Amino acid sequence: MATLHEQRVLAMVRAGTITRAEGDRLIDALQAQPRPARWKMLFNPFDQFSTQALWAAAVSVTLASFAVARMGVRFDGTLDLHPITSATPWNFAVLDAASAILVTSIVFWIASLFIARQGRLSDFVLSVSSARLPNVLTGALALWLLPPADVLLAEATAGIINFRVLTVALFLLMPGFVWFVTWLYTAFKTSSGLKGLRLGITFAVALIASEIASKFLLYLLSPRI
């Protein structure tokens, strides 16, 4: 079962960019690389998992995001999550997933084509979908650890400082967000093949652009569903 790197090599062979012999040598070199320590997969699972395993992860994470949304969290945008006072309606949950996965994947893919002159949309959809796992886990834990959304709103309106909320923000929400962005970064790195300064700059620009584009899509479509 090929990884995303190996799938990209096979795609280059099929496109005639490299010969089959060159492709075989590249795949042999990839497979000869030592496997990283297991703990490193917490920050970059995309280099080691097969494409089939990532597809299973992508579907599972997406279904889990629907379940968490129905419990009272919205994932509205590339990066966003926040508790709400009731279950997210199914139409909004699907729209949120589309904005978080499809819009982000398309923006990342376009950035890769423009800068790296390579990249497959299917790889970006697969890796971005899987990379949402930290965000979904954070949302689920936030539901368990934070007061209900209406209580949060009332306390914020009254100017009440809730140290429980501050603790959860410091030790869950912020680390969860950093973990999520790290997975998006490694997903973009694996799918685009970019490295170094070009990778960092392109990812930052693409991430900001995808957040804006996903919010704009929600703004356009939310009143119509």
Provide key terms for this protein.
single chain; 225 residues; mainly alpha; 2 domains; two-stranded antiparallel sheet; 9 helices; elongated
Descriptive notes:
The protein is elongated and about 70 Å long. It folds into 2 domains: 1-34, no CATH class; 47-224, no CATH class. The termini are far apart. A hairpin with a 7-residue loop joins strand 1 (73-74) and strand 2 (82-83). It has helices spanning 4-15, 20-32, 51-70, 90-115, 121-131, 133-145, 149-158, 163-192, 196-221; strands at 73-74, 82-83. The longest helix is centred in the last third of the chain and has 30 residues, at 163-192. With 225 residues, it is an all-alpha fold. It has a two-stranded antiparallel sheet with strand order 1-2.
Short description:
The chain has helices at residues 4-15, 20-32, 51-70, 90-115, 121-131, 133-145, 149-158, 163-192, 196-221, and strands at 73-74, 82-83.
Largest sheet: 2 strands, antiparallel
Distance between the termini: 40 Å
Label the structural class.
mainly alpha
Q: If you compute it from the alpha carbons, what radius of gyration comes out, rounded to the nearest whole angstrom?
A: 19 Å
Give the number of DSSP strands.
Answer: 2
Summed over residues and divided by their number, the pLDDT gives a mean of 88
How large is the count of helical segments? 9
Sheet with most strands: strand arrangement: 1-2
The percent range for helix content is over 70%
The shape, in one word, is elongated
**Could you tell me the strand content as a percent range?**
under 5%
**H/E series, N to C?**
HHHEEHHHHHH
Uncertain spans, ≥5 residues at pLDDT below 50? Answer: none
How many discrete structural domains? 2
